[in-house]
Here is the input.
Amino acid sequence: MYQQLIDHLKNKRIVLLGMGREGHSTYNFIRRYLPEQKLIIADAKQVELDNDPNVEFVCGDGYLGAIDRADIVIKTPGIPLLHFKRPQGVEVTCQTDLFLLYLRRRDGHKGQDDNLDSHLFHAPRRRKRGVPDRQHGLSRF
Here is the structure.
Protein backbone atom coordinates (compact mmCIF):
# COMPACT_ATOMS: atom_id res chain seq x y z
CA MET A 1 0.00 0.00 0.00
CA TYR A 2 2.84 2.40 0.79
CA GLN A 3 5.25 1.24 -1.91
CA GLN A 4 5.12 4.39 -4.09
CA LEU A 5 5.75 6.61 -1.09
CA ILE A 6 8.58 4.38 0.13
CA ASP A 7 10.17 4.42 -3.34
CA HIS A 8 9.90 8.22 -3.39
CA LEU A 9 11.72 8.53 -0.05
CA LYS A 10 14.31 5.79 -0.58
CA ASN A 11 17.93 6.90 -0.99
CA LYS A 12 17.12 10.59 -0.56
CA ARG A 13 18.61 13.02 1.93
CA ILE A 14 15.61 13.59 4.19
CA VAL A 15 15.28 16.34 6.77
CA LEU A 16 12.48 16.03 9.31
CA LEU A 17 11.77 19.62 10.23
CA GLY A 18 10.14 19.73 13.65
CA MET A 19 9.79 16.82 16.06
CA GLY A 20 6.38 17.32 17.62
CA ARG A 21 3.67 14.70 17.21
CA GLU A 22 3.73 14.77 13.43
CA GLY A 23 7.52 14.69 13.29
CA HIS A 24 7.63 11.65 15.56
CA SER A 25 5.00 9.84 13.51
CA THR A 26 6.92 10.60 10.29
CA TYR A 27 10.10 9.33 11.91
CA ASN A 28 8.34 6.12 13.03
CA PHE A 29 6.94 5.55 9.53
CA ILE A 30 10.34 5.98 7.91
CA ARG A 31 11.99 3.72 10.46
CA ARG A 32 9.35 1.04 9.96
CA TYR A 33 9.71 0.90 6.17
CA LEU A 34 13.24 2.27 5.64
CA PRO A 35 15.16 1.30 8.79
CA GLU A 36 18.60 2.12 7.36
CA GLN A 37 17.60 5.45 5.78
CA LYS A 38 19.85 8.30 6.88
CA LEU A 39 17.87 11.20 8.37
CA ILE A 40 18.56 14.69 9.59
CA ILE A 41 16.25 15.83 12.38
CA ALA A 42 16.07 19.60 12.72
CA ASP A 43 14.25 21.37 15.52
CA ALA A 44 14.54 24.60 17.47
CA LYS A 45 14.43 22.59 20.70
CA GLN A 46 16.75 19.84 21.80
CA VAL A 47 15.54 16.44 20.57
CA GLU A 48 16.30 13.05 22.05
CA LEU A 49 15.59 9.68 20.47
CA ASP A 50 16.62 6.15 21.23
CA ASN A 51 20.05 5.20 19.99
CA ASP A 52 19.75 5.53 16.19
CA PRO A 53 23.08 5.66 14.35
CA ASN A 54 21.39 6.80 11.12
CA VAL A 55 20.15 10.10 12.54
CA GLU A 56 21.97 13.42 12.67
CA PHE A 57 20.51 16.15 14.88
CA VAL A 58 20.54 19.85 14.07
CA CYS A 59 18.99 21.67 17.02
CA GLY A 60 18.91 25.23 18.23
CA ASP A 61 18.92 28.58 16.49
CA GLY A 62 20.45 27.42 13.20
CA TYR A 63 18.20 24.41 12.68
CA LEU A 64 16.71 25.77 9.43
CA GLY A 65 20.17 25.54 7.88
CA ALA A 66 19.68 21.78 7.62
CA ILE A 67 17.34 22.41 4.69
CA ASP A 68 20.37 23.20 2.51
CA ARG A 69 21.56 19.59 2.85
CA ALA A 70 18.28 17.91 1.88
CA ASP A 71 16.63 16.43 -1.16
CA ILE A 72 13.30 16.27 0.70
CA VAL A 73 12.18 18.28 3.72
CA ILE A 74 9.16 16.90 5.58
CA LYS A 75 7.99 19.75 7.78
CA THR A 76 5.48 19.89 10.58
CA PRO A 77 2.59 22.37 10.43
CA GLY A 78 3.93 24.51 13.28
CA ILE A 79 6.99 25.71 11.38
CA PRO A 80 6.29 28.62 9.03
CA LEU A 81 8.67 28.98 6.11
CA LEU A 82 7.20 32.21 4.77
CA HIS A 83 10.40 34.21 5.10
CA PHE A 84 12.83 31.38 4.36
CA LYS A 85 14.29 31.02 0.88
CA ARG A 86 14.07 27.41 -0.25
CA PRO A 87 17.23 26.14 -1.95
CA GLN A 88 16.94 25.14 -5.60
CA GLY A 89 15.97 21.49 -6.06
CA VAL A 90 14.79 20.89 -2.49
CA GLU A 91 11.30 19.42 -2.17
CA VAL A 92 9.46 20.83 0.85
CA THR A 93 6.45 18.74 1.79
CA CYS A 94 4.40 17.55 4.75
CA GLN A 95 2.44 14.47 5.79
CA THR A 96 -0.78 15.78 4.26
CA ASP A 97 0.84 16.38 0.86
CA LEU A 98 2.41 12.93 0.86
CA PHE A 99 -0.89 11.35 1.86
CA LEU A 100 -2.77 13.08 -0.96
CA LEU A 101 -0.12 12.23 -3.55
CA TYR A 102 0.60 8.60 -2.68
CA LEU A 103 -2.08 7.05 -0.51
CA ARG A 104 -5.38 6.66 -2.29
CA ARG A 105 -8.34 4.65 -1.15
CA ARG A 106 -8.43 1.11 -2.51
CA ASP A 107 -12.21 0.73 -2.70
CA GLY A 108 -12.54 2.93 -5.79
CA HIS A 109 -14.54 5.56 -3.95
CA LYS A 110 -13.64 9.01 -5.25
CA GLY A 111 -15.44 11.02 -2.62
CA GLN A 112 -17.80 13.83 -3.50
CA ASP A 113 -16.05 15.26 -6.53
CA ASP A 114 -19.11 17.30 -7.44
CA ASN A 115 -18.64 19.34 -4.29
CA LEU A 116 -17.23 22.78 -5.15
CA ASP A 117 -14.84 22.78 -2.17
CA SER A 118 -13.49 19.38 -3.17
CA HIS A 119 -13.08 20.56 -6.75
CA LEU A 120 -11.21 23.70 -5.77
CA PHE A 121 -8.86 21.65 -3.62
CA HIS A 122 -8.19 18.77 -6.03
CA ALA A 123 -8.45 20.44 -9.44
CA PRO A 124 -4.91 21.91 -9.50
CA ARG A 125 -3.43 18.49 -8.70
CA ARG A 126 -5.53 16.83 -11.40
CA ARG A 127 -4.51 19.43 -13.96
CA LYS A 128 -0.87 18.98 -13.01
CA ARG A 129 -1.26 15.25 -13.76
CA GLY A 130 -2.90 16.14 -17.09
CA VAL A 131 -6.42 14.96 -16.14
CA PRO A 132 -9.11 17.30 -17.52
CA ASP A 133 -11.95 18.32 -15.21
CA ARG A 134 -14.59 16.72 -17.44
CA GLN A 135 -13.38 13.23 -16.53
CA HIS A 136 -14.47 13.93 -12.98
CA GLY A 137 -17.90 15.33 -13.82
CA LEU A 138 -16.76 18.84 -13.02
CA SER A 139 -17.20 20.54 -16.36
CA ARG A 140 -19.58 23.11 -14.86
CA PHE A 141 -16.85 24.72 -12.75
User: Anything to note?
Assistant: The helical segments are 3-9, 21-33, 95-102, 116-128. Confidence is low (pLDDT under 50) at residues 111-117, 135-141. The beta strands are 14-17, 39-43, 55-59, 72-75, 91-93. The two ends are 33 Å apart (CA to CA).
